[in-house]
Structure formats: C-alpha cells, structure tokens
Amino acid sequence: MTNQDLLKIAEKFGSPVYVYDSEKIISQYNRLTNAFSKVKNLRIHYAVKALSNISILSLFQNLGAGLDTVSVQEVKLGLQAGVDPSKIIYTPNGVSLEEIEMVAKMGVQINIDNLSILEQFGTKHPEVPVCIRINPHVMAGGNTNISVGHIDSKFGISIHQIPHVLRIVENTGMNINGIHMHTGSDILDIEVFLYASEILFSTALQFKDLEFLDFGSGFKVPYKEDDIETNIEELGEKLTAKFQSFCKQYGKELTLAFEPGKFLVSEAGKFLVKVNVIKQTTSTVFAQVDSGFNHLIRPMLYGSRHEIYNISNPEGKERFYSVVGYICETDTFASNRRISEIKEGDILAFKNAGAYCFSMASNYNSRFRPPEVLWHEGKAHLIRKRETFEDLIRGQVKMEFTPEKAEK
C-alpha cells in the first residue's frame, strides 16, 4: 500500500478514515504460526477487542484462526462472521453469571477467572467444560494499565488459591479442560514470559483432564523505526521445547493456545487525517487535524507513540510540529515531532492504527466515528460506513416538556 494508494483512499472515502492492510495481517499470522510450527496442536485465538470489524474477523476465520472474546457481544460478532463456536474462547472479567450462561449455550469455550462464579457455574452446569484463568503474580507489560498478571490485578484466580479451585472442582464434579494466563501487553523480556509459563505448567499438573494450555499474548510490536519488539522466533523455539517437555510429563499431547490482538493487526493499520489549520504560537507550530482522541485515544490514555508522516509531501523538508486534534480538551497526538513540511489540506498518516483505535473510538463532542477500509488484493474495500447524524441520535428519546410559566 503506497502513499498514492492512501491519498486515493482519503479522496474517495474522506477523512478521517481507518485503513487496514490485509497482507500485513496475514504475514503477522504466518510469522506467529511459523514460530511455533513444531507444536503439534497449535491454536491462535485472535483477540477481538483489538479490532472487531466482522470483515477482519472473517479474514481470521479464513486463515484458520479462532477468536478470543470478552463479552457476549464479541461472541455474537464472531458467530456473525462465520467463526465456528468451538474455535471461540470467552474470557470475561466481572460479568454476571447470567451472561456466562448465555454464552455457554452458544457452544463456545468458557474461561472463568474468579472463585465465586466458578462455584456457581460448576454447581449449576457441571457438564460444561470450563477453562480457568490464573493470575501468576508476574508483573509484565509496557504500562500499568496493560499489566494484568501482577498481585494487585483484578484479573485471574491467584495461584495461591488453587487449593480452593480444586475443592470446588471436587465438590461440583465439573470438568476443567484448560488453564489460561495473561500477564500483560508489550512484553519485551521473553524470560519473564518463560518464567510465567513454568507457573502455568506447575498449576496444570494439578488438573488431570486438560485439553489445552492458553498463554494469552502480550507480544510487543515496533512503534517507530528501529524500535525493539518481542522476539517471536526466539520465544517460539524456547517455549516449544518447554511445552513439549511438559506434555511428556503430563502424559498427553495438549493444545498450545495464544490470544494475540495487537501483534496481528497493529502494524496493518493506518489512520488518515486532514490538516485543517497550521497555527503558530510564540513557541510551537501546531498542525490541527480533523480528528481527536475521540478517534485515537491511545496517546492520551497510555502515552503510546504513533509515528506520523505527511503523505501529501513525503519528501519535503522536515520541520517540528505538534499534531493536535479538534476536540475541546487537550488532545495532543505528538509534541515537537519532526515531520515533512505540512500545509493546510495535507493528509497525515498515523502508523500502528490497527489495534485499539476504532475499537476505543467514541462520539465525544457529538462527532461521527470514521469509516473503515480494508486494502485487500490491491483494492480498497469499505468495511464500515462513516456515521451520520441519524446514527448519532439513534436510540435517543426526546422528551416533550410543558413550557414553564413565569411566576406573577
């Protein structure tokens, strides 16, 4: 996908607009499966929350992937996209027993992460296979908001509570068919991941009828040139050896599962915006664009970095700009960033816009959410229309008020 392709997309579909490159998604999927090619039974569950458009889910279904879901709505999206329910795992946090029961009836794999729901569900539905999400108490991840395996995390059942789990399983007669963990996102040190895997293996030995082990994800992708990333190939080699050794010890060939989201779609995405105003103050030159944190909140929420380049003038002389949005709050995408000279009307492209961009977008300031376009086999395909005013007021109910009479 060239700059000219992107400019044509912006011209055809308007700005702002999200663009995803299917070729990059496919290459990332193949890279991950190749890294673990020596594992006999490998299952990749794409994390729907990263990018939930049903055309993207359908693409993963076509590649042979399953889905990792966290809500009944994501499960329904997966089914709508044509994914077999047996390839969907449902890992909620803090939801009601009623929602879990609703999902169980759809035939997907249930994953439970707290003792209360485990006991309630096991008592009522001992025949339904259940996976257990453990908390290994390992701090990992690029930001405290995305580190979920540490001791203070709300996620998972503490490894110190495994005796309680075993007692519930014995009392209810329920079937535990999988053990799951997820330590966090943007993990660089694979030794931390391998250390956590030993905890998972040790826990798994206490359950006799397992079918799979789920290692979550958290693989870091590069956000800028020469940026460091998770060495998937090295992790694949080392974790495969550990997993094969465990299977021999367990006496059974289990399935090894992962739940990547960002790793598969982040680099495939570009977010295109138009520069409305160049505003120079005494100390800063602002490039004010036709978007804001209502469309791309990650820099403001996580402090994440998105490379920004001027596709209207890619070879221009570089100058320093602060790229900001049109929301009536501080929504700075980049401060004093070197970008090819920008003029009003130019189109800027944000890299790494495939994960947690549209899926976290909102209608703040009553702005419309942008369209989504999939670049597939050399053509641009609209996979979500731009919202309209009718979309904005859909579901709202206008009350009629009796005019207030002024007091005499």
Automatic annotation (TrEMBL):
Gene Ontology process terms (BP): lysine biosynthetic process via diaminopimelate
Function, in words: Specifically catalyzes the decarboxylation of meso-diaminopimelate (meso-DAP) to L-lysine.
Organism whose genome encodes this protein: Salinimicrobium sediminis
Keyword Transmembrane: no
Subunit relationships: Homodimer.
Binding annotation for substrate: 298, 302, 329, 356
Name of protein: Diaminopimelate decarboxylase
Family: Belongs to the Orn/Lys/Arg decarboxylase class-II family. LysA subfamily.
GO molecular function (one): pyridoxal phosphate binding
UniProt entry keywords in alphabetical sequence: Amino-acid biosynthesis, Decarboxylase, Lyase, Lysine biosynthesis, Pyridoxal phosphate
Binding residues for pyridoxal 5'-phosphate: 218, 356
Enzyme Commission number(s) from the entry: 4.1.1.20
